[in-house]
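pipeline: protein-struct stage 2 | run 1193 | Mfs/sugar transport protein
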Amino acid sequence: MAKEASTVIGEPNYNRAKLWQIVLFTLNNSSTNIYMFAFGFVTYYSTGLVGLTALFVSQIMGYIRIFDGVIDPAIGVLIDKTDTKFGKYRPIMILGNIITILSFLVLFNIHGLGNGMKIPIFLLALVVHKIGYSLQATVTKAGQAALTSDPKQRPIFNIVDGWVTTLLFTGGQIVVANFLVPKYGGFTPAFFKVFIPGVMIISAILGILAVIGIAQKDNKQYFGIGEKTTKTSFKDYWEIVKGNRPLQMLTMAAAFVKFNSALFGDQVVLMILFGIIFGNFGLSGTISLVLILPSLLFTTFAATIAQKRGLRYSYVRYLQGAVISLILLGGLLFFANPGDLSFSSLSLWTIAFTIVFACAKGFTSTPTGLALTMAADVSDYETSVSGRYVSGMLSTMFSLTDSVASSFAPMSIGWILAAVGFAQAYPTADTPLSPQLRMAGIVLLSVLPLAGTMIALGFMKFYPLNKEAMEGIQAKISTMKNVGPSDDEEDEMPHAIPAMND
């Protein structure tokens, strides 16, 4: 009969990190996130400068995300099998960033190629980009299991990540919408000549700082139960995935949450909302600036709750807040018109929309950061029940479902816009508001995210790793480090633990 993972033997002996190590390693996520931000402009580059159709690009962007998910498990195994004198994680981080730089150098310079070469090189550059991006991004989740096991320290990652990500994306949106686009007359070759090198330089600097942050912890003694860790063969991976219920539930929930977050961050959706419904694309940069403080408060509050009540509790409460705010946002957009939103002369409408939009975006997007840390909990759970340390493979399972689900974001945008007459080109700031475009905006910013949130809540009902369960898991790992996993534990693979009720 299978044993429960929460079996406690002794007291936890936490592996703790210094604050500066957590802060610097957090920047690895920022290093890859800035490429995610820049990737949002591939659609305008490929349709405006390369000459591809909007529907074709939207589908390709979706398929490339699926490809990203398909290769992720292989990358996870690569990370788990990596063992060099420079550690497990640092070589992968550096390699990933170099590959991503090379892919962008090619991707944003294909407009000068002959027509017969544009599509093949475009597709090849996208594939190479996803390989490099996945290599570096996977370490963000996998490395946290080695960085710290203290449940009070792990949410610090979410606070720092939330602050840096907010400042990065807000600053990026302001620079693009309020400076680069007006200066270079839109998404022109001159725009990309300045924008893309800037992205690559910032990402490289952040990546180097992250390597410094993980350096001391990138050591075998911090991997699972150290030298006593059970060796894992390729045939063991399927059994691990099949038996790890927390992994199954959280990856599915996180996938739909990421889908929602992708919609809120997509440049085409922002163009529909601010450039067409409200008639001024520059508002996307302005509201990003206005929402800096609320976004930081959402992130900090979520991590504070997690430190006191556990990551699962905070995750579920934020999803519940998203349900209410998304319904309100859909209602406001139904009555919105160009000129209604203005920060030069505040009106009741502007105040109401800003509050509701801040809540919708905050409750919808913040859980994506929490899932990064919860992946470390899932890794520790696996160690506690099997003695194995497979943080790389487990982390890429999150990426697999995440990529497949989020691939439907650009696909959904393409399908919806094609249905309202925009199959050849995306709407721009010069496109007049129509009932069809209004409805497209409501579906993309309210209806689809609401459906995704409800599905995620359903999966989280069966995710069992609450605060008490994790305390038991850490206590068990501490004992295993001293005595090693028993033969019975390795054979029985006691993955099944009861679901927790809210």
